[in-house]
Amino acid sequence: MKKILHTAAAVGVSCFLASAANASLVTEWEFAVTAGFTGAATFDADTGGTTIETATELSWGKTGGDYTDTTQNSTNSRSALVITNPAVSGSLFTNGGPAVTSTLTHYNNTILRSFESLLGATINTTFALTPKVPAGEPRETIDRDITFSFIETPNKEDCGFVSASECDDIFVLNPADLTDTFIYNDFVYTTRVIPVGLGPLSDGACTVAGAETGCFGLQTLEGQANAFGVLVDITARAVPVPATLALFGLGLIGVAVTRRRKV
């Protein structure tokens, strides 16, 4: 029995070390990211004005209005969400910080309440990764839908929440939609899509948005073009193979029993 335990200890330790040695962390990746609206935007029941929905633009307000012209008043203006740089590629380093991809801009202009306004939409993103250092086969493309709700707030003195303008519009989304994980060469990799400025909203903002306390989102200043860079990053942690862990554990038991007998 003693000999068996010694053998298990040796096998367990050697297998654990061999597994650790053979697992190669990918330190650099080639990536390609795309982003676009899916055609699933919803608008309120008002019938004034017009709405436009393409893969890179959602706009609403006065028919023929120009959302880039901040001098227009509420009767002839439009608001919009626009994605620029919808397809971006480059290099991404594991645990090395984010890379810049697309930009999402909210042209937050004052429009008549009788105009249709956005209630929510979905952005589809694809995230293709190919190991570069060390080189490897391309990973399966990560395809995710990021759904958000939008609150076009009335412009009044009492916003009902802490606001930098009169009154900030509000986006609410689920942070879980921004994260994916996969296992490659005994490492768990986590990828994220990170809109700059995303964070927990105040209780007041969540209430105005009709969301639960602790909701996440963005606030955008009235009368401005609010641009948010969209970042991606990748992090990793080692995960020993379960079979290797079992052998390693058996080996540790053997070592412990042997030491106890020597005492």
UniProtKB/TrEMBL annotation:
InterPro entries attached to this UniProt entry: Ice-binding_C
Membrane-traversing stretches: 239-258
Signal peptide bounds: 1-23
Entry keyword set: Membrane, Signal, Transmembrane, Transmembrane helix
Domain named Ice-binding protein C-terminal: residues: 238-261
One Pfam family linked to the record: PEP-CTERM
NCBIfam families hit by this protein: PEP_CTERM (TIGR02595), PEP_CTERM_THxN (NF038125)
Protein name: THxN family PEP-CTERM protein
Organism: Congregibacter variabilis
